[in-house]
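Re: export button greyed out
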Amino acid sequence: MILVLLGPPGSGKGTQAKRLLTERGWPQLSTGDMLRSAIQNGSELGRQAKGFMDQGALVPDSLVIGLIEEKSKSAECAGGFVLDGFPRNVAQAEELDRMLGRLGKQVESVISFEIGDEVLLSRLSGRRTCQKCSAMYHVDTMKPKAAGICDKCGSAVVQRDDDRPEVIAKRLKVFHEQTAPVAKFYEGQRKLKRLDATLAPDAVTAKINGILGI
Ligand code: AP5
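Workaround output, generated via the alternate export path:
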């Protein structure tokens, strides 16, 4: 299964992709996580990406497409994978089709997480993320057992640099201008299914399972 999770920042794509990984063993390809890890490792890719990410802008297509191409060819992704945060504009969606076509594969299903900006603002400003394993928490609704410590790996749980209110506003603007048209692209291919992403995490998981028939 090659599945795309499409939706605005904070809509729950990462939460659900991690559940698909844990419960089904489907690899999660998150361009955001890959870029943050490149920044932490001090690599050239991370150096180039950081300025864009800190401002809430998209990183240039040339940087992220290479990441996905490399991962999608790996042995661990041979049986399929879940794309979380990619494609993020129509050019990336077109390139993904070409890239998968060369491997004799295609995107099978696209799930669009539908949710309004006000809920996203509260989710993102309250989100805390594990520095090491990217596990996610929320200051009100999903607290770690010990304050500031990841339940899963014991590392520090911190606020992402781009989860500050002024950067969140920019990310939402970028979503509406550049990523929302990707839904139309997949609608044209009859692959798009929409779900109500305001529901609680378990209800969203149940909807995804229903859409995929799993
Ligand atoms: P990225 O890391 O992809 O961030 P994003 O798309 O902005 O998405 P988020 O991780 O913020 O949100 P999410 O939908 O995964 O929600 P989550 O599950 O965390 O990208 C960051 C940056 O990297 C971009 O701005 C860009 O610069 C760059 N980048 C990445 N990919 C790129 C690409 N392809 N091209 C160019 N640039 C790229 O949940 C959010 C919060 O809500 C959490 O606290 C969670 O606990 C909570 N929550 C989740 N689900 C629910 C629920 N159902 N009910 C209540 N709370 C919930």
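The two ends are 11 Å apart (CA to CA). The button fix ships in the next patch.
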